[in-house]
Amino acid sequence: MAASPAGEAVTIANEEYKMTNKTRKIEACCELLAMLRPKTYPFGIKFYETLEERPSGTTRPRHPMNTCQITAIVRYYGRSMYFTADDMACIVGGVTMGLIPEPEIMKNGEIAKMLHADLKSAREFTTQVAKIPCGKFKAVAVAPMAKLNFEPDIVVMYGNTAQVMRVVQGYLYEKGGRIHFSTGGEWSLCADSIAQAYVSQDIALGLPCFGDRKTALAQEDEVTVAFPYSMYDKILEGMRQTAKVAAYPTPFDIGFPQMPDYTLTPWAVEYRRKHLKSREDKGMSESDALKSKE
């Protein structure tokens, strides 16, 4: 039976919407990359309730891997990945992603005892770690933001402190207040970033843990920021609005040293009194004062 004109129109409209939405995502991602220039790709994460929803263009690990290793392939090489409980090497990654049940070794703190004085302190750590409820999801897809062909639940970016600072400023532009983040210095990407952002439906910061550094190429100057994708546009707009006063890279003002007179040479003190006092009287900037001297 031939499709009706109305049905064809709806199909065309849906396809146009998908293309427009995909284009908007790519443009927004490119803007984020242009503003911050992170060393690796920001990526989106989507959780699936069944095993029948695998997005096209994704690759499964060839052997069991850690969550941070899988995302490292995405952020360093720009590939799209898909994984299930069967692909998990790290117990912690599987548990915090909600893919496998929490074993007794994690409940009682045994798995974290190497970083704690005793089982009690280790258990205090493991019980407070963010975890997506087990059984809620069966699979996870991860892709660079610029290559997404699915609507992500969470966005994650690795960056230096200045880059992540800009994301925080964008987040707080309309909301105001402050950000408080929780970390134990371990299980950081999977728990402190991804799971925490999902469970709280809010922004989360993390310090890459030893596993991320040893097995997944996390660098010493990197921190992570994760947030629900629903916040993406507002954060980006906040970054736009604050860019004039808090640009990245941070402008370096090589002006006259802002130091007390007693720490300066006599001729430096004289320069300050003569030229900078004159600038203040005229309402000139320091760079204008230097130009006028030339």
Give helix and strand order, one letter per element, not per position: HEHEHHHEEHHEHEHHH
Mean pLDDT score: 88
Helix content: 40-55%
Output the structural class. alpha+beta
**How many strands, which pairing sense, and closed or not: the largest β-sheet?**
6 strands, antiparallel
What characteristic shape results from the CA principal axes? globular
Strand elements, count: 6
Q: Count of helices? A: 11
Short description:
This protein is an alpha+beta fold and 294 residues long.
Describe, in plain words, how this protein is organized in 3D.
The protein is α+β, with helices and mostly antiparallel strands and 294 residues long. The protein folds into two domains: 7-242, no CATH class; 261-293, no CATH class. Helices cover 46% and strands 11% of the residues. The chain contains eleven helices and six strands. A six-stranded antiparallel sheet has the order 2-3-1-4-6-5. Helix 2 crosses helix 8, helix 6 packs across helix 9 and helix 10 (266-282) packs across helix 11 (286-293). The longest helix is centred in the first third of the chain and has 32 residues, at 5-36. It is globular and about 75 Å long. The model is unreliable at 9-14 (pLDDT under 50).
Topology (SSEs and partners):
Layout: H1 5-36, E1 43-48, H2 67-77, E2 81-84, H3 91-96, H4 104-107, H5 119-128, E3 139-144, E4 154-159, H6 161-175, H7 188-200, E5 204-206, H8 210-216, E6 223-228, H9 232-242, H10 266-282, H11 286-293
Helix pairs in contact: 2-8, 6-9, 10-11
